[in-house]
């Protein structure tokens, strides 16, 4: 075939080939538009997922950490678990390029000019230790602000290794990993959410996040139910029955306007107001409340209510009720008029920025608790100290075994 001078020869016809099997796609795929100014979250893609009502088991405040990553050239792996949304400064540049609030790896390259692209299975990885062991119900892989430099696809796996294994132990080929999210295409500048299959909801301690072939991920959120070690709780004897790390969790709250109620059962003291729970100002004659599911069937003996950092917006008073859902006729814990609700702390005066401690004169067995503040305001931490009953300890041990836990692990 000849071509006239000055003209471009036609491209040869593409050869048909089977190619790789197409990957499943998440709710969002493809890049986002370049940032043009204004609110960087204005075009952030997100969706509601029921599992996000459960606590984040990888929360750094619980002890979650990113143990290692195969590459973190542009942005450090630790950003993955930072509380709060990722920040974006369009003018922030450093010697290695754009400074991003996330985990970003360098661009992979092929072996030669004739094959410049990375192989189909090449990827970067990060190892995450959960802050508390538990069952994972869903995850959010948020690529906020990674608009054209996000990974094409991700994979997430989990395993359960007791003690404090390091990267070498976790990367040992003998370790068995369970696929929580199979390799799936995701979108840039999007909160990519994935519910995990029910069959994978076993006790996990560590995760492996893989991004193909490279790119940036701003945040990883791992929502699920904590599963504490019964042997550890038995050794403690008395402990905080509402604490997230001990299996307590928030079921519902009257108001979540300024900050989430789950903050009240995090470890340690609050360092800022938004590290606690704050409600909007009431203009009616009502009050605000949080309802908790406790670590198990238990006997509370003392209450601790911390208004740390709330100086001009602490509640005036607080009261505490408990309910034993195992008792016949107690009623539904979601019904605050149910006959099983018993007041263990009558309305007590609260002071700003203060830890208040109350010994209970008449302890009552419980599975649930309700903290009521009058009329509104902020609570940094809520502690309900006591111990599991023999029945509660037996049920927790049985659940721990059923979900793959081992004694002392």
UniProtKB/TrEMBL annotation:
Pfam families from the UniProt entry: Allantoicase
Pathway where this protein functions: Nitrogen metabolism; (S)-allantoin degradation; (S)-ureidoglycolate from allantoate (aminidohydrolase route): step 1/1
GO biological process terms, semicolon-separated: allantoin catabolic process; purine nucleobase metabolic process
Taxonomy, superkingdom: Bacteria
Protein name per UniProt: Probable allantoicase
Matches recorded under NCBIfam families: allantoicase
Catalytic class of the enzyme: hydrolase
Family listed: Belongs to the allantoicase family.
EC number: 3.5.3.4
Enzymatic reactions: allantoate + H2O = (S)-ureidoglycolate + urea
Region feature (Disordered): 1-47
MF (Gene Ontology): allantoicase activity
Stretches with biased composition (Pro residues): 7-23
Annotated InterPro entries: Allantoicase, Allantoicase_dom, Galactose-bd-like_sf
Swiss-Prot/TrEMBL keywords: Hydrolase, Purine metabolism
Domain Allantoicase, first and last residues per copy: 63-226, 247-387
Gene3D superfamilies per UniProt: Galactose-binding domain-like
């Amino acid at each position: 075939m000849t071509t006239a001078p000055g003209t471009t020869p036609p491209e040869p016809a593409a050869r048909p080939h089977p190619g790789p099997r197409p990957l499943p796609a998440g709710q969002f795929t493809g890049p986002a538009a370049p940032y043009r100014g204004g609110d960087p979250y204005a075009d952030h893609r997100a969706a509601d997922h029921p599992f996000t009502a459960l606590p984040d088991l990888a929360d750094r405040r619980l002890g979650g950490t990113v143990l290692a990553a195969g590459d973190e050239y542009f942005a450090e792996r630790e950003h993955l678990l930072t509380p709060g949304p990722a920040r974006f400064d369009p003018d922030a540049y450093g010697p290695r390029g754009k400074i991003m609030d996330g985990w970003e790896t360098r661009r992979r390259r092929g072996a030669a000019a004739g094959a410049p692209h990375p192989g189909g299975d090449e990827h970067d990885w990060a190892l995450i230790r959960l802050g508390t062991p538990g069952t994972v119900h869903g995850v959010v892989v948020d690529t906020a602000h990674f608009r054209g430099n996000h990974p094409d696809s991700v994979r997430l796996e989990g395993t359960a290794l007791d003690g404090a294994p390091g990267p070498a132990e976790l990367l040992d080929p003998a370790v068995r990993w369970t696929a929580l999210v199979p390799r799936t295409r995701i979108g840039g500048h999007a909160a990519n959410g994935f519910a995990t299959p029910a069959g994978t909801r076993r006790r996990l301690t560590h995760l492996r996040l893989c991004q193909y072939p490279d790119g940036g991920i701003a945040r990883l959120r791992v929502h699920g139910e904590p599963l504490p070690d019964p042997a550890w709780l038995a050794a403690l004897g008395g402990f905080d029955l509402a604490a997230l790390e001990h299996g307590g969790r928030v079921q519902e709250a009257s108001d979540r306007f300024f900050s989430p109620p789950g903050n009240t059962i995090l470890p340690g003291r609050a360092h800022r107001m938004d590290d606690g729970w704050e409600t909007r100002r009431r203009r009616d004659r009502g009050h605000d409340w949080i309802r908790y599911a406790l670590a198990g069937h238990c006997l509370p003996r003392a209450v601790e209510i911390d208004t740390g950092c709330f100086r001009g917006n602490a509640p005036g008073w607080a009261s505490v009720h408990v309910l034993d859902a195992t008792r016949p006729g107690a009623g539904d814990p979601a019904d605050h008029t149910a006959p099983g609700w018993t007041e263990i702390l009558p309305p007590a005066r609260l002071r700003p920025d203060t830890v208040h401690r109350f010994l209970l004169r008449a302890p009552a067995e419980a599975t649930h608790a309700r903290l009521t503040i009058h009329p509104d305001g902020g609570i940094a931490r809520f502690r309900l100290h006591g111990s599991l009953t023999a029945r509660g300890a037996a049920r927790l041990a049985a659940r721990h075994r059923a979900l793959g836990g081992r004694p002392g692990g």
